[in-house]
Amino acid sequence: MLQLRKILVVEDDALIAMELGERLSDMGYEVVGPAHSIAEADALLERQTPDAALLDASLAGGASSVPLGIKLHAKGVRVAFCTGYDKVKDAPPELAKAPVFTKPVSDADLRAGLEKLLA
User: Fold this and answer.
1) How far apart are CA 31 and CA 111, in angstroms?
2) 16 neighbors 103 (Cβ within 8 angstroms)
3) pLDDT tens, 16-35?
4) Predicted confidence (pLDDT) per residue in 76-88, tens digit
5) What distance in Å separates the CA atoms of residue 53 and residue 72, rounded to the nearest whole number?
6) Rounded CA gap, 116 and 36, in Å?
7) Which value, in Å, is the radius of gyration of the alpha carbons in the chain?
8) Which CATH superfamily does the domain covering 6-118 fall into?
9) Is the CB of residue 10 less than 8 Å from the CB of residue 68?
10) Which of 8, 17, 43, 115 has the most CB atoms lying inside 10 A of its own CB?
C-alpha cells in the first residue's frame, strides 16, 4: 500500500486552514492538523512527525512561525511558508531556502512547490 506523504498545516485563519487542507488532500497528501497556533502544532508533533510543513509565517497575535520552522528543520522535516508577504521576516540561514508561497497560492504552484520540496 502506498504511504501518503504527511503535511503539517499551521494556519491561524480557520477558513484558509480548512480550504488548504482540502486542497492538499485532493492532491494526495495526508494532512496533519491543521494547527491554528504554535501550541497546537507542538501537540500534533508530539504524536507524529510529518514529511513537510506548510507554515503561515505570521500567526494570530503577531506570533512568528519561524521558531517552529527551525525546530522542524532540526528534526529533518522540510519546511515551506505560506504567507501574504513575499518573504519571511527574520528567517535564519537554515530556513533561507524554504519556499515561500504567497497567498492566495494556486493549486499548480502549491503542487509544484510541494513536489520540489519533497523530492
Assistant:
1) 14
2) yes
3) 999 999 999 999 999 999 99
4) 999 999 988 777 8
5) 8
6) 25
7) 13
8) Response regulator (3.40.50.2300)
9) yes
10) 8
